[in-house]
Structure to design on (314 residues):
């Protein structure tokens, strides 16, 4: 009597992730650099949200002077090694003033990220609205909006920002910087959304919705906007580092956030005079700015490869 062996069933492979958000999570898990970048972004966002608590934990306000931490006979240089790092001042102190560097860095993160995120929100809202309208309605609407995009992109934005911030005196500097930076950033994302909308408005499901009597507003919100959401999310992540760098550049040039409100760009500008005698004053805000911009760039590249793979190859 012969016995036959039945082969064991092959182990079932887990189903491949479907949907944009599952694809994004799978891509982030696969890329170590993207995971590290996400962790750095989350860390600095947490620092910005909890800046008052962190400075209180350190025991110093960002505008509080500590004359005992600097040497008046050496031009106000910090006492102690590495810019005055000690148990009392975790990252050292500013030369001359003795203000706690840790408190100013965490509050500077709050100011810099607030301006960057708010300006990015303005850019995304204006760019998506203009791009969808131009791509969907076409004709004269497309011509007017496209010429407005070309005009805005050809304008010397940095010169205008410097002139506007220099002329404006008794205004909320943070609000003005947010509006000015956001004013010139929307055409780039508007062009992306316009091209995506042009490819979506002739799809079968959009034509079916139009034939069934759906209004333009319903088609735009139910059919077109979900189709452009992926590229918008990816490019939004790539916009943020540019906004952070622009705010830092304006503050570095002296037309951005004014003292005593701390900002990374402002701190870097003030540290130039002490780079050879107190390099830590320059290194700390510069490193924070570098890590934040790099993390957002790496994260944006990973999300772009997921949501808009063709955009990564062009």
């Amino acid at each position: 009597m012969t016995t036959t062996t039945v082969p064991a069933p092959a182990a079932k492979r887990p189903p491949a992730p479907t949907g944009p958000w599952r694809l994004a999570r799978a891509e982030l898990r696969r890329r170590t650099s993207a995971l590290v970048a996400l962790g750095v972004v989350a860390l600095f966002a947490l620092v910005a949200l909890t800046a008052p608590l962190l400075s209180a934990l350190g025991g110093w306000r960002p505008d509080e002077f500590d004359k005992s931490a600097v040497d008046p006979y050496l031009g106000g240089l910090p006492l102690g090694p590495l810019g005055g790092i000690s148990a009392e001042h975790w990252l050292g102190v500013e030369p001359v003033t003795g203000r706690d560097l840790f408190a100013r860095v965490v509050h500077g993160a709050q100011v810099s990220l607030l301006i960057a995120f708010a300006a990015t929100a303005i850019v995304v809202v204006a760019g998506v609205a203009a791009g969808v309208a131009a791509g969907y309605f076409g004709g004269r609407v497309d011509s007017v909006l496209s010429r407005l995009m070309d005009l805005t992109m050809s304008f010397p934005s940095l010169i205008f920002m410097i002139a506007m911030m220099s002329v404006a005196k008794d205004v909320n500097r943070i609000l003005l910087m947010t509006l000015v930076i956001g004013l010139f950033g929307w055409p780039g994302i508007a062009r992306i959304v316009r091209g995506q909308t042009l490819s979506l408005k002739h799809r079968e499901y959009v034509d079916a919705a139009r034939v069934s009597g759906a209004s333009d507003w319903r088609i735009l919100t139910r059919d077109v906007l979900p189709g452009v959401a992926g590229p918008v999310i990816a490019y939004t992540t790539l916009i943020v580092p540019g906004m952070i760098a622009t705010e830092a550049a304006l503050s570095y040039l002296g037309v951005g956030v004014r003292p005593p409100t701390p900002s990374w760009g402002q701190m870097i500008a003030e540290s130039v005079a002490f780079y050879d005698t107190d390099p830590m004053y320059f290194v700390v805000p510069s490193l924070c700015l570098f890590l934040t911009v790099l993390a957002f760039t790496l994260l944006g590249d990973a999300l772009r490869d997921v949501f808009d793979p063709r955009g990564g190859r062009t």
Notes: The longest strand covers residues 70-71.
